[in-house]
From TrEMBL:
The gene is fabD. GO terms for molecular function: [acyl-carrier-protein] S-malonyltransferase activity. Belongs to the fabD family. Transmembrane segments: none annotated. This is Malonyl CoA-acyl carrier protein transacylase. Its EC number is 2.3.1.39. It comes from Alistipes hominis. It is an enzyme of class 2 (transferase). InterPro entries: Ac_transferase_dom_sf (IPR001227), Acyl_transferase_dom (IPR014043), Acyl_Trfase/lysoPLipase (IPR016035), Malonyl_CoA-ACP_transAc (IPR024925), Malonyl_CoA-ACP_transAc_FabD (IPR004410), Malonyl_transacylase_ACP-bd (IPR016036), Mitochondrial_malonyltrans (IPR052760). SUPFAM superfamilies: FabD/lysophospholipase-like, Probable ACP-binding domain of malonyl-CoA ACP transacylase.
Length: 294
């Protein structure tokens, strides 16, 4: 079975999607439509902006979504997903690519999500840190013993777990995790504590928009971040998407479940090849490829 996966924030690079815009009429049309929906020329920043401009959450999230989804649509009849998944923001790309949401509604939700997360970050100064080389259970245990908010946020692959929380609690957790034998406890250059209780204001803000958007049954199961299980029921997909902002991304478990359910080939669509690397760390035998253009 062919699984398609879609990257999240951090995969962006200047020049992303330009090849599609220049060579695929449908892609050009969708990029221009995106500029209208967003109310600013995001293609200018994606194709020829600076890293700083592209790093703004309100730009980054729609940019990655657009590159991923427009690439999937540009594949036309060659895009035949039998299962899909996306890492954090990438879940929205997976939903649109699989037909659970329209391009316009997906982009609108991603833009609202980015703005809501930006606002939540400004309300609560906070951060994330990558913990390398410890079992998940050890990281969970140490986080739960720290005063303040610090929680596992991204289960990326065995031995790589990203934690999320207030600045002080992250510092305290990093010190304890290093003492416990972590190879690295590296603070990340992110806007705030994504996938933690500190995103609750963003979850509340986004909930109404997700509930108002028309969801359809996708063409194949979507393995969702909150519990790593496959879904096709629109109401359940919506509920899981609302919970996603304050819940951890269970990427390790998603890959394990996809393989257990028959995935024989993984194709990553969009910028970068981060997910391809993570899938290989979950299962060295997995057949993976990354596509950034046709």
């Amino acid at each position: 079975m062919h699984a398609y996966v879609f990257p999240g924030q951090g995969a962006q690079f200047v020049g992303m999607g330009k090849d599609l815009y220049d060579n695929v009429p449908l892609a050009k049309e969708l990029f221009e439509k995106a500029n209208e929906i967003l109310g600013f020329p995001i293609t200018d920043i994606m194709f020829a902006g600076t890293d700083e401009q592209l790093k703004q959450t309100k730009v980054t999230q729609p940019a990655i979504f657009l590159h991923s989804v427009i690439l999937a649509k540009s594949l036309g009849a060659d895009f035949k997903p039998e299962m899909t998944a996306g890492h954090s923001l990438g879940e929205f790309s997976a939903l649109v690519a699989a037909g659970a949401l329209s391009f316009e509604d997906g982009l609108s939700l991603v833009s609202k999500r980015a703005m809501a997360m930006q606002k939540a970050c400004e309300q609560n100064p906070s951060t994330m840190a990558a913990i390398i080389g410890l079992p998940d259970a050890t990281v969970e245990e140490i986080c739960s013993a720290i005063d303040g908010v610090v929680v596992p946020a991204n289960y990326n692959c065995p031995g790589q777990l990203v934690i999320s929380g207030s600045n002080e609690a992250i510092d305290a957790a990093c010190a304890k995790l290093t003492e416990a034998g972590a190879k690295r406890a590296l603070k990340l250059n992110v806007g705030g504590a994504f996938h933690s209780p500190l995103m609750e204001p963003a979850r509340v803000e986004l909930e109404a928009a997700i509930k108002a958007a028309p969801f359809a049954e996708p063409v194949c199961p979507i393995y969702q971040n909150v519990d790593a299980k496959p879904y096709t029921d629109p109401a359940k997909i919506q509920a899981n998407l609302i919970a996603q902002l304050t819940s951890p991304v269970r990427w390790t478990q998603i890959v394990q479940n996809m393989i257990a359910d028959g995935a024989t080939q993984f194709t990553e669509l969009g910028p970068g090849s981060v997910l391809q690397g993570l899938i290989k760390k979950v299962d060295r035998a997995a057949v993976c490829e990354s596509k950034q253009t046709l």
